[in-house]
UniProtKB/TrEMBL annotation:
PANTHER family cross-referenced by the UniProt entry: VITELLINE MEMBRANE OUTER LAYER 1 HOMOLOG A-RELATED (PTHR18841:SF0), VITELLINE MEMBRANE OUTER LAYER PROTEIN I-RELATED (PTHR18841)
Organism ancestry: Eukaryota, Metazoa, Ecdysozoa, Arthropoda, Crustacea
InterPro entries: VOMI (IPR005515), VOMI_sf (IPR036706)
Pfam families: VOMI
Name the UniProt record assigns to this protein: Vitelline membrane outer layer protein 1
Cross-referenced Gene3D superfamilies: Vitelline membrane outer layer protein I (VOMI)
Annotated organism of origin: Daphnia sinensis
Cellular component terms (Gene Ontology): extracellular space
Amino acid sequence: MHMSISIDINVISCSQSISCWFVEPTARLVFMILISLPDSGNHNQSAMMKNVVGFLALFVFTGLANGQQVITVTNGETDGRWGPLETCPAGSRAIGYQTQNELDAPVVDDSAVNTIVIFCDDPLQTNLTSTPGYTGNWQNVQTCPFGAYMKSFQLRVSPAGNTTDNTAVNDIRFMCSNDRDISGIGNNGGYWGEYSAECLEGICGIETRVRPDGGLLVDNTALNDVRFTCCTPADFKNF
Ligand SMILES: *[C@@H]1O[C@H](CO)[C@@H](O)[C@H](O)[C@H]1NC(C)=O
Ligand SMILES: *[C@@H]1O[C@H](CO)[C@@H](O)[C@H](O)[C@H]1NC(C)=O
Ligand SMILES: [Ca+2]
Ligand SMILES: [Ca+2]
């Protein structure tokens, strides 16, 4: 039961990005067969058939998840376009992050979180941003304790429709592989959503959804959503 839910989450999370249709074609195909199975008159037979196909889907999907799993949350906002996927160099994964935030100010229009930078643990300490924002102050770098890495995340978001000031994503925090979270300073508006699924091997890539600066007459929101790709065991094979 739990596993079949994770299939749904991954297929849905991927549906917003064209590239995902190429990344997981087999999982998608099996999923479509699964949901389009004709409901024959014989319910026992059709239910059994769905179980068999569901099991196969799970099997194929588990193999593919080792290729490209995406973790998402459900409370992101929808303005702006998804930016490019940026990934850690092979053999490394994300162990820390930093945000650029326009913190809550008396002026009406704040955009809260603009940019999320994640730091990989390769020798060059490669940093990834996908699409960056355009304003705000850099907050402190937050890093998992030595030996731990980031495996899931949670967003604090103001839902669209705030007549005073929309900000979309206000804050983010990550869970590390030692089950301690890391968090910095963000804005207090809106609500924390649920944690994303966990990347067993850690987070290896980032895609952000940023609404570009609309100028002085627009209620800017900057970062609207973010999602991460999981590392795979193959990423660490020769390291
Ligand atoms: C990210 O890496 C680039 C290239 O090394 C560097 O110029 C930049 O300052 C780094 N950004 C952060 C936030 O550390
Ligand atoms: C709506 O905007 C106001 C002003 O910025 C803010 O204080 C409040 O927290 C926002 N409400 C929500 C639900 O985010
Ligand atoms: Ca404000
Ligand atoms: Ca705003």
